[in-house]
């Protein structure tokens, strides 16, 4: 079927940042087949959507997330040792395939409502998360996590690799879901396992690798103590610093690390909101981009960053760069929007399919209402998106020509059921947290 979006302010995010205002977009099947200014050529039988002057732009790309963890959102925010006191014990006891399905469904609802059409995820029981993405219509990189801290879905690395193989076998040729292998971090897998993952990756070059890298001082201290190297150098020598690596966070870096990363042509997902909340530092985004590294924006999990839309990340990523540079100039608004769209797609090696509105690409797009007073007057649409727009301004979302949301009504998922299921999980968590508190603080 043909869909014609008309009377829109079209931000293409192509190489020349071309705009059409008023403009139109034609979609046939899953593909964009025409873009232009003014009125579109007529097409008998087409679905015509008059956008009323609203912005139509590429759907946003969340380059790092833990969708199953949305059920941990807001848990023990002000408890210093919440990871060891609550999170890890709760994960070991409650993280099951069913819990990951429930958490991932809640996350999918939130992201669709917030303008995200593509997400890179890493967590446990990732075949469940892949099924949620398939059902919801989201485009996704789905990473089965491997770790050595008693993860809930594998008790040995052999069992973890078996889960990876199952995920890859099931989704290797899926049109929207790309399987991935996801070592948790250098310190939580170790050099020998990283080398094994590098060998596996060499045999499966089309499968992305996702990993937390240079995220904390703990990780840096581990690398210095055990290998007398930076954590980036340990990763390089293990064979994992290569173009299909999506490295999340990348906070604790020096110039030599950035040079190594650039020479290896890896890709980066920065997570400003969760890193700022944790007090872990500011990622040198400008330095990395100036060194030729593509950098996308990620939400991290809702346990860390609370929200999974990218509007919540825009101001922090821009402001942190400006604070580092001592000026308004670093990371102008248009570059932030590029990071959230075409550059994020490049980080995930999906830039030939999505990330910009161009003829021949997949029809992954969103419509943003300009009705709210806080969005006016408009001098620069990119500044509007970065510093004033909110998830609630997104009215329509489409992936591969399929509507996921129209007029704020979800087409593929049941938001009421998603909330109901998540509340049931939270009630179980609350009861267990009371038990933990009683055992830690006996009367």
TrEMBL record:
Protein name per UniProt: Amidohydrolase
Keyword Zinc in record: no
Pfam families for the chain: Amidohydro_1
Gene3D superfamilies on file: Metal-dependent hydrolases, Urease, subunit C, domain 1
The family this protein is said to belong to: Belongs to the metallo-dependent hydrolases superfamily. ATZ/TRZ family.
Annotated ranges, domain Amidohydrolase-related: 55-403
Species, as recorded: Devosia rhizoryzae
Keywords tagged on the record: Hydrolase
